Amino acid sequence: GQQLNQSPQSMFIQEGEDVSMNCTSSSIFNTWLWYKQDPGEGPVLLIALYKAGELTSNGRLTAQFGITRKDSFLNISASIPSDVGIYFCAGRKDSNYQLIWGAGTKLIIKP
Amino acid sequence: GAGVSQSPSNKVTEKGKDVELRCDPISGHTALYWYRQSLGQGLEFLIYFQGNSAPDKSGLPSDRFSAERTGGSVSTLTIQRTQQEDSAVYLCASSLVGLNTGELFFGEGSRLTVL
Fold first, then answer.
1. Residues B63-71: contacts with CB within 8 Å, 24+ apart?
2. Which tens digits make up the pLDDT trace of B25-59?
């Protein structure tokens, strides 16, 4: 099925570093969502974006709804060990469409 | 319940056997979704329920897969004559209303291994 282009696929970072990941599409979306999945768990919603240009923070996490409505970005500042996991973006085109998911970005913190 | 509950959490079965996976959504959530996640992969949509009806079952990979929901609550995903490629984590999610809202609440998943 259709997927968003999420990158990078994985990231190896040092504790304390900032992290950036993004999702892009050739289609326009009305909603962008960012989820995190810990090992053995289901995804948990981190940030929801509903308006082009919107910038929303949740603690050390900041996400932006791209102005073109075709992309979204997630930044994590000053990463800590519990940030490891898989981050998924998901988008919705309009109220009649289901969520379309990115393939995920796996975050690994180097010891 | 407090969250989405799925059972079993782990299921190992032999090729050709049928399996049933259960999802108990958050109380009051009218929408229910089943996804499949293969190892290291993203989420593959299977089926969506609004109440007891399934307006979108486009993601079911074959006629061996079926799902039902009763009483607007519990849902069961059935896989008949399981194949090795069916091995994956099956995730259930629920939300308060339908497709036009953001937040899906996920269960912890049922990990299916077909030998």
1. B67/B34, B69/B32
2. 999 898 999 999 988 788 999 999 989 999 889 89
